[in-house]
Amino acid sequence: MAAPTHVTNACVTARTTGECLHLNLCGHWKIIEPRPTFESLIGVQKPERLLISTDDLESWDGALVLFLVEVLRWAKEYGIVADLAQVPRQAREMAEGVLGASSLPKPPVPALGLATGVGLATVDVWRKTRDIATFIGECVFSASRLFRQPHHFRWNDCLAEMQKCGAMALPIVSLISLLVGLIMAYQAAVQLRQFGADIFVADLVGLAVVREMGPMMAAIIMAGRTGAAFAATLGNMKAGEEIDALETLGIAPLDFLVMPRLVALGIMMPLLTLYANLLGILGGMAVAKGVLEIPPAAYWVETQSIVDLSDLSTGLIKATVFGLLIGLSGCLRGLQADRSASGVGQAATSAVVTSILLIIVADALFAVVFNILGF
After folding, report:
1. SS3 category, 277
2. Which domain holds residue 91?
3. Residue 20: how many other CB atoms lie within 10 Å
4. Could you tell me which residues come within 8 angstroms of residue 156 by beta carbon, excluding any fewer than 6 positions away?
5. Whole-model pTM above 0.90?
6. pLDDT higher than 70, residue 5
7. What are phi and psi of 45, to 5 degrees?
8. What is the pLDDT at residue 328?
């Protein structure tokens, strides 16, 4: 005979009669109080029959149901008969319902037809387009409030974001821009040397860096660095219900969280692009000096003769638009994130993908527009 087990108010006495194990439940079974578990009671025993009685049971709630679920699951696993006739009917039915629901097979997922798949994809694209348009419209209204009431803007937060996405991004921007300038100059030098046009390396590198590669490389770096950070920060705030708290207090999340980031990135992207242009041209100058033996002064004069203010302004316009697109993508994905750790990670990934996609599309549109305008 097993000794009775006591855990606070809930207790179980066990005795063996032949091949039958009899468990008598007694005391108060409350979900908020400790209770015995069936696995600790049964151990390695495998009786042919299990009988549970509740003669000394004083009160019960979900704790008893959980205990009975453990009993039924164990009995089903080992093919043992569990007699619960003496257990309260409500507790027995609830335990059987929980066990039955957990063992139900998942219904098969029906195969979607072509028309259904196309329809669902169209609805999904329409919903996402509507959400993006709504977010952009809200940002426009928030920007109008900024211009009407600039004293209400959170300038301290904006300055802090400018430091994060500007000064703290200089090392990686320096490395990438310098290497891009080196690579472009070296590849151009190999081809131009065959025709004796070594000096035109400065023209190729200067125009390519100022008009395309400087804004593009800075934007891609900021998309992977700052856009993902925006999405992760806002997604974490959403998971922690901080954004809900702001809305409860009557504070617009776009004014409080989104606009300082957009303004900071819109201001810092042209400055980072100017810095990237300088490093790219210096990288080309280093290759011209080392490979083509062109003096730096001659290289710089040739660069000044080919790069004018229109080339520089087109790059800065692109950089400003790219910065706004990165900020919008990061903040949008952060506000759309699921309230979980995995949702925050997915939001950061989606922000980077969306930012790079929009950057490429915007750059293609700029190429067409500037060609039509003659820039």
Report:
1. helix
2. 5-103
3. 14
4. none
5. no
6. no
7. -65, 145
8. 92
Amino acid code (one letter) for 362: A
Q: Is the pLDDT of residue 1 over 50?
A: no
In a domain, 155, yes or no: yes
Q: For residue 168, which of 208, 214, 207, 221 has the smallest C-alpha distance?
A: 221
- Highest mean pLDDT: which of 12-16, 102-106, 130-134, 290-294? 130-134
Query: Closest Cα to residue 64, out of 40, 33, 85?
Result: 33
Rounded Cα distance, 209 and 301, in Å? 16
Round to whole Å and give the CA distance between 24 and 297. 98
Angle between helix axes 62-78 and 89-103 (nearest 10 degrees) is 50
Determine the pLDDT at residue 176. 92
Domain assignment of residue 111, yes or no: no
Cα gap 197→296, rounded to integer Å: 16
**Residue 23 near residue 52 (C-beta atoms within 8 A):** yes
The whole-number pLDDT of residue 240 equals 84
When divided into structural domains, the chain yields a total of: 2
Do the domain assignments include residue 119? no
Q: Looking at the structure, do residues 9 and 155 belong to the same domain, yes or no?
A: no
**Domain check: are 200 and 346 in the same one?**
yes
3-state class of 90 per DSSP? Answer: helix
Helix (H, G, I), strand (E, B) or coil at 52: strand
Q: Is the pLDDT of residue 2 over 60?
A: no
Which pair of tokens denotes residue 368? 């067409």
- CA–CA distance, 149 with 255 (Å, rounded to integer): 11
The CATH number assigned to the domain holding 33 equals: 3.30.750.24
The angle subtended at Cα 154 by Cα 151 and Cα 157, nearest 5°, is: 150
* Domain C-terminal end among 86, 103, 120: 103
- The candidate with the shortest Cα–Cα distance to 54, out of 84, 24, 96, 30, is 24
Taking a C-beta distance cutoff of 8 angstroms, is the pair 221, 349 a contact? no
Asked if the structure places residue 221 within a domain, the reply is yes
In degrees and rounded to multiples of 5, residue 360 shows phi and psi of -65, -45
